[in-house]
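Example record for the data management plan.
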Amino acid sequence: MFLAMVFLKGAVSEVHTVGDELQWNTGANFGSWSQKYNFSVGDILVFKYVKGQHNVYEVTEATYRSCNGSTGVLATYESGNDQIELDQAKKYWFICNVGGHCLGGMRFFIDVKEANSTNIRPPTPQSEPLPPPPPASSCATIYVFDGWSFWISLFAFGVLLQL
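Corresponding structural encoding:
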C-alpha cells in the first residue's frame, strides 16, 4: 500500500499560479518564481491578469531572448485566466507581448520533466541545523557514583576482598 502511494504521488499533477500571489503582472520576478518549482508533464500553469492589460505568448527560445513577438509564437492566450497544461517534457518559454512588458521582466522559461522522473528539490531548512555529534573518544568511560550507590559499591567491593 505504501509503495502504491509513493508511485501515485509522483503521478499527481500540480497547479501553479504564475507569479504566486503577484500573479502575471509587471513588477514580479518570474525568473525567481520559476526556479522555486519542479515542473512535470501534466502540471498546469495558471496565468491570472487583467484582460486587455497583459497576455501570454508561448514562444521559441529565440523569441524569448529578443522579446519580439512578431515571429516564433507557438500559442497565444488573452483571457485573463489562462490555464496551460504542460503536456511534453521540454523547455517552455513564455512572454507578455504587450509593449515593453517582456523587456520589463514579464517572461520566464521552465524545463518540464517526465512525470515519473525524480525531480524533487531538497527542502529548505526552516531552522538552524543541529550541531554535529561529539567525536568518538578513545578514552575509557568513567562512571560517577553518587549518594548511596557509592557506599553500596564500596561495601560490595569490601565483601569481595574478604572472600
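Summary line stored alongside the record: Strands lie at 15-17, 44-48, 56-59, 73-77, 81-85, 91-95, 107-111.
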